[in-house]
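Course assignment 3, question 2. Fill in each field.
Student: A.L.
Task: Predict the tertiary structure for the chain below.
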Amino acid sequence: MKTEESYAHFALLTLFIASMGPLLFGYNTAIISGAILFLQESFSLTLLDKGMVVSIILLGAMAGAFASGTLTDRLGRRPGLIINGAIYLIGGYMSSIAGSLEFLLLARFILGIGVGITSQATPLYLSEIAPIRNRGAFVSVFQLSITIGILCAYFVGFGFAESKDWRAMFALSMIPAALLFVGMFFMVESPGYLMGRGRPDQALKVLKRLRKSIVWEEHRTDVHEANRAERFRLKALFGPPVRKVLFLGVFLSALQQVTGINTVIYYAPEILKMAEFTSAAAALLATVGIGIVNVIVTVVAVWILDKAGRRPLLLIGISGMVLSLSVLGSAFLYQNAWIDRIALIALMAYVGFFAISLGPITWVLIAEIFPLRMRAQGMAVAVFVNWGCNYLVSLTFLDLVNIIGSALTFFLYAVICVAAFLFTLFFIPETKGLTSEEIQKRLKRTPV
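Answer field:
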């Protein structure tokens, strides 16, 4: 019988501290939906100003993702997360004291840099501290924390709606930011990074804190990669041996966004008002319900991912997304008396199917498929593309609705989901329970 490693309690503490990053990712991207009405009163925002306040965090995230590979490769995963916490603290404080639109935009851009670094550094770190049999669950906590952060933002926005205190909404983000910044000083460097730097003795000490038992065979590939790490250059990402892996990581990251999820995260109240919800308050309350569904289903994904595998959940979840978007598009097309209830149920189903598939599994796969020597840089490229597509979808959604109508817009996203299903079916391998070496062997047989 194969012996497997199991995690120690310290690994769970490390997981909790590191998860403050994605919680802040979710909170800082979603809190603007609750604050924007009151910001408009404070700064007399035009329509263009509102768009800039909402979208500039995405531009910052692209910048952060671009820099994250070099940051986590040269300084290490743990220092990268410490710097990440400091950026969130600075951005949160600056947002809360902003006295002008320009200062607020700068603060939101800084927060975006933090979000971009989190998108690469946290799943990378979690994948390297996790035992192989729990790797999917550990990395899925990244997505779970994002959904919890989004839900917290919805509740905070609702809680401060009467007082209109947008400064308090932004300032609250400093609590988890401080926990991340201070907490990571007491955590460990990832054993994968230490192996990659030719420091197996230090890696072993770290593993003794993270594991109840150590199976050195599981780390043999990392030792082999460490001997080759000094020969890696960024241009090697685009060379024949690893170009296939980069293609899979980048394409999967793009599909996570272009299937339309952030149209719901950013514009759910507007979508529900299009579906004839009677008031803004009702639409906001329904949006909280969507956020709750997102969290609950992501918890289920964390629990079953290492049992069910990556491919089956992707195929089931994307199929459900196609069906949900088709129902949503049909509701807008036929405009019957039940459109509000049909739209809400379809949106909840769509978010739920995303939360069990493309939501968490994209982060798991891009953290698994890259070899150690190119993992940080490869993930940085994939995450940069992810944020670029996020920005593109967010920028074009309302224009699409105005040009082709709500029904055709959601049918378009359904067609893209069909493409995502076919991509998964033909190109994405199963990685559950495999070492890095075994994953690379399986990828070589992938028909790209």
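Instructor remarks: The first helix runs from residue 9 to 18. The CA atoms of residues 209 and 422 lie 42 Å apart.
Grade: pending
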